[in-house]
Amino acid sequence: MNFKDKVVYQIYPKSYCDTNGDGIGDLPGIISKLDYLQALGVDYLWLNPIYPSPQRDNGYDIADYRAIDPVYGTMADFERLCREAKARGIDIMLDMVFNHTSTAHEWFQKALAGDAKYRAYYLFRPGKPDGSAPTNWQSKFGGSAWQYAAEVGQYYLYLFDVTQADLDWTNPAVRAEVADIVRFWQGKGVHGFRFDVINLISKREFADDPNHADGRQFYTDGPHVHEYLRELNRASFGRDAESFTVGEMSSTRLDECVQYAGAASGELSSVFTFHHLKVDYKDQQKWALQPFDFAALKRLISDWQTGMAAGNAWNALFWNNHDQPRALSRFGDDRRYRVESATMLASALHMLRGTPYVYQGEEIGMTNAYFDDIDDYRDIESTNLYAIETAAGRDAAAIHELLRARSRDNARTPMQWTAGAQAGFTSGTPWLRVNPNHTEINAEAATRDPRSIYAHYRALIQLRKTQRVVQDGDYSPLLADHPQIFAYRRENDAATLLVLANFYGEGAKAPLADTAGYQLLLGNYADSPAVLAEEVLLRPYEALIYLRKK
Ligand code: TEU
Ligand code: CA
After folding, report:
1. DSSP-based three-state secondary structure for 333
2. What is the reported pTM?
3. Cβ of residue 61 lying under 6 Å from some atom of ligand 1
4. 49 C-alpha vs ligand 2 centroid, how far in Å?
5. Cα–Cα distance between 152 and 326 in angstroms, integer?
6. Domains and CATH numbers, the chain
7. Which atom of ligand 1 is nearest to the CA of 141?
């Protein structure tokens, strides 16, 4: 399938649109917004997990892979969503969480009850001779990655929440179950799949990580992961010529991703990687703040653009998702230059080689939540952090500063549809507070304004569809050492595209050569220069896209 002209829109169903007043978004709510999504021009809707779940980790703790959580609606609603989306040229991409299940899943419950078959689905291991956990690995949400199960007399591994037990992929029965689940959804006409933390499924060895590291070296890009993916591909989505897949790759390497998403690998269509979203992590630590390192950001984007192309592999392109603070608040200026910086970030990303993802609300310039009361937070990672740091004696103000910058809830606040009560998201009480700035920032206002952030996203999506060079052009960096400007070229047999983006609130000069013949395609200021000069003066957060035909 040619996916090079496609764009994906990510929906966090819990926060998109609530139609029954329970404060939680639902499938009928998504259906009611399909016209809005069609007008934006997107091709796929990635839905975060909608299966029955205790919701400890907002659906990433799945209790039943073959049903819809009643809070979101029914299977009939899901089928209607697929049909109505398809009628608008849109496909659904489902989120498949196969590194772990909820401990409420019947497999885990049977394992606890003593069923040997299901015990072998999980990673139960005896403690050390002194009774402590089998290894010193840390859960991604804080604390040990092992929980003692008295019923079994052993510990089970959980890389995320204690209610998310890791599956044992060395067990062929587990792999057969997983393929069967994918086929179940294919049977409903689903062609798109996103595989959650899929590069963590093959554990190398159960040993203590030296120097108090968290253990990731023992399970990231493990020894059998590529083999398992090829097997899953052959047994499920690989049988569908229309399939499009993306794997979420945690702390991975370029050479691994060339394999995961190589055109001839028989694994996945594309990968999400996160290196470019750690440039503001001090010492690689999520909960240690530093201003973003622009030079590193440019280098990482460029290296992945070039490296994936050299390996004939395909990138996902994204600034935002449900796990990240809003990029606009992080790399832009969400107050003084909100519109300029949002449109600049979008321009810089959408012209790259790969599949762009738009995370709900990004297209209207939604910002971080900036909560200042711990009771406003819902995310397990945030509430765990607060509890752990408070117990360690850290003062509340310091923890709040971290959460305001990094909490996943910053991106999870309800979609802002209108300036009215609860942003038009719900007639009831929303499960997570609505950002008060919805009075200014909302879809109703954005879709009316021809110069809005929304209009700019629409234009960028159209450029991918109408300019073949955006789909297949080679990437080369420009002005690599410039301290303020990210710039690149895309080139194919028919045209050259040139993109300039100023990442700062001060003007910047872009010295260029060979500028003759370039015409403006899109800019984010009303009066962008129609032709390219030898020296371009970029205004705060200005972005310019030019094309030269051959
Ligand atoms: O995320 C995997 C992951 O490693 C992160 O992005 C994680 O949320 C972050 O490191 C915490 O700081 C995926 C899902 O996207 C996320 O929502 C789930 O919580 C997680 O897997 C577990 O299924
Ligand atoms: Ca609802």
Report:
1. coil
2. 0.98
3. no
4. 15
5. 42
6. 106-166 (3.90.400.10), 472-549 (2.60.40.1180)
7. 11
